Amino acid sequence: MTTNKSSTETTTSTIEPQVFAIVRTAGKQYRVTAGTKISIDEVEVNPGEKITFSDVLMAGKTGGAEVKVLAGSETTLGVTVTGRVVAHKKDKKVIIFKKRLKGGYTKKQGHRQAKSEIVIESVSL
Length: 125
Hints:
Layout: E1 19-25, E2 28-33, E3 37-41, E4 50-53, E5 56-61, E6 67-69, H1 74-77, E7 80-90, E8 94-100, E9 105-111, E10 114-124
Antiparallel strand pairs: 1-2, 1-5, 3-10, 4-7, 5-6, 7-10, 8-9
């Protein structure tokens, strides 16, 4: 009986820390990294143009213990988040239905929120 001894090589791969940021736009907060695609409320920017997020709440690196908590604008603390508008779309339809019992009152209404798809290009500390 022959025994096959296979050499097991352990490779230590270094995972590069990725810079992230938490930005606030239209009253909502988004955690973004470079390459992230987000869908936010519609902005008045043409598709293909760049957009800079000015309200950065927090930033840091995912691979390490370095986390920088921000309290002001990115111009004073050195954090910039830029993205590119991909397209303007509408969200899925939401149906609003109201009814009053014994009154014969019904009302059906639909709504589609306008959204902008944005790809984050860079997050720099």
